[in-house]
Amino acid sequence: MATVEEHRAVYRRAIEAISRGDAAALEQLLAPDVVDHNPIPGQSPGVEGFKQWMSAARASFPDLAGTIEDLVAEGDRIVGRVTWRGTQTGPFVGVGPTDKTVSFTAIHIVRLVDGRIAEWWGVADLLGALEQVGASVAAVLATP
Asked: pLDDT tens digits, residue range 87-138?
């Protein structure tokens, strides 16, 4: 059975892998059937779906990098508060490239089984990110 410190290390490595765009590393850190409880539209299940999410995020923000601000661990669960930073050089939620740098917070809860992430819940301040790229919230909400 993995320790809380080992769980913390897995989560840290997952954030580092996302920051590098390292899909191969994610395959080692995520259970093959990982459940992403907040998937993007059309996201496949399991590791492949998580890699789809990462690819989509990095298409909008190729230099996307996360900094763990807070990390709480108990039993088989980790709660992390992460600040994501990146430059929007690709489309983002209907907004064309702006070359603006954004910084937004996300909260993650992950459950680990056998040293791998089995479940992932994530909520990010995408409204804040949209405001930073100059998007009109009314216009984004009106987009079909």
From this structure: 999 999 889 999 999 999 999 999 999 999 999 999 999 999 999 999 876 7
Q: What is the pTM of this model?
A: 0.92
CA torsion, points 91, 40, 64, 125, in degrees to nearest 10? Answer: 90
List the beta bridge partners of residue 72. Answer: 79
Domains in the chain (CATH in brackets) are: 4-135 (3.10.450.50)
Contacts of 127 (CB under 8 A, 6+ apart): 137
Contact 30, 116 (CB under 8 A): yes
> Using CA atoms, how far apart are residues 138 and 73, in angstroms rounded to an integer?
38
